[in-house]
Amino acid sequence: MDVSRPRPFNLLRWFSALSFVIVAAAAAGTAAALSHFLAAEILHWDAAVTAEFIVSIAETQSAYRGYHRKTGVAELLGGTTTAAELGISEAAARESTAEFYDHMRALPGATFIRVYARDRKIIWFYAAHGYEEEPANAADETPQFLEKAFELQDTGRFVAIGRWDYHVVESLPGKPGRYFVENYVPLYDTQGRTAAVVEIYKEPVGLLQGIRRGQTLVWSSLIAAGALIVATLFLVARRAAIVMEDQQKRLVDSETLVVIGEMALAVAHGIRNPLATIRCNAELILGEVPEGSKKQVQDVIRQADRLSSWLRDLLVFSRPAEPDAAAEEVNLVEILRESVESFASRFAQARIAVEWIGTDIEIPPVVGNRMLLLQAINSIIANAVEVMSDGGTLTVRCILELSRGRARVVIADTGRGMSQERLAQAFKPFNTSKASGLGIGLTLVKRTLERYGGGVRIESRENMGTRVKLMLRIAG
Q1: 322-473 CATH pick, 3.90.1150.10, 1.10.150.130, 2.40.10.350, 3.30.565.10
Q2: What pLDDT score does 47 carry?
Q3: What per-residue confidence (pLDDT) applies to 175?
Q4: pLDDT digits 0-9 by tens, 378-391
Q5: Each residue of 3-25: b (16+ CB within 10 Å) or e?
Q6: What are the domain boundaries of the chain?
Q7: φ and ψ at 403, to 5 degrees?
Q8: Are 452 and 367 in contact (CB under 8 A)?
């Protein structure tokens, strides 16, 4: 029986499809919100400009006719004053209100205009050419918006109450549904109360065309941005898929190395005791052999010590890293000084000067393990001593970064430095240029720092020295 194998999961295809759906939904939602906001803001601005225009006309008419106060026309319209109280004749009052109505008829885009007195009665009505009746579908909303306009108090701003979103008037005989904007503009008296209200229905064709152009620009921009994001995510996902495929191949290739590593660890555990026995016996016979043979015995001891150091580093490297293993509060400056003092004789022999910077400031304890951090710093200083065999300066600098919750230590030397190729391989295990090195010193440093939430970074240039930066997390 032939059973077909299930198709493998295609991460790139699913990621691309989901990215497209999510980005498209986000772009559509954003475009819709921005389009609505754009239309509302433009219509609100147009209503405020119209209100400013109407109030200015009323105040100009009051000043032109010589009224005692600039709110005279508004008060005449609202029925809250008389011509005699304003110091003018009845004929002049009628002429000023008539001129105000003439200006209302000239408002651009106005199709219907009604003026309400304070008692809510319509004292004047205007319908543009071709519109002989009032918009009946707004009758239910009129009291609501009208009352809001009459309740307003003068705050020094030009205000219009009404619908910022346009709506369709369908009740005009023989006229198709068309878009209108409805606004209520309050006119105030001297006490800041609403004396009259001007209701305006406008058909702002040019304004609506501008809104549509703006909305088209918003949608086009977001569609283009969404397409760019989807394309970028696809390229990133494709690159990630290639990297993952390469990593899988490397994983298969490294399985053999894992077996070899396990065998190496078994051998290391097996030869530690015999090696210690060889060294011990060599020390015992060192005082009994002839003077001419002592050099060979001393070579045996040195080589045994070197092999023992290799085995110790190898066993430490093979242990799994546990983030909180033996974590404690460590005095950073104290272990720095202890490490530097342990190299005092080698500094003197190689003519190396030590420069301290920032170690006099108060640095809070850091998180780590005292012995492991000391070994890490010793490893870095030992490397610096080896590259300054003809003398130089070792700089130890401490920097406190409270905003990031960490302390930074910079250990710099004036040695021969490293090439960019060697720098790129610095933290890879078993990679060394030393004839007697194992190549896991910096790897152990990196593992130690990262185990306690820190990190390490190296900067180096050939013949320009090397700077090792250690980042450690502040306790508490």
Answers
A1: 3.30.565.10
A2: 79
A3: 47
A4: 888 888 888 887 88
A5: eeeeeeeeeeeebbeebbeebee
A6: 11-203, 235-301, 322-473
A7: -65, -30
A8: yes
Residue type, 114: R
Output b/e per residue, 213-232; b: 16+ Cβ within 10 A. ebbeebbeebeeebeebbee
pTM of the model: 0.42
Give residue-wise pLDDT tens across range 263-300: 666 666 667 677 777 777 777 777 777 776 777 777 77
pLDDT in tens, 175-217: 444 566 788 888 888 888 888 888 888 776 677 777 778 778 8
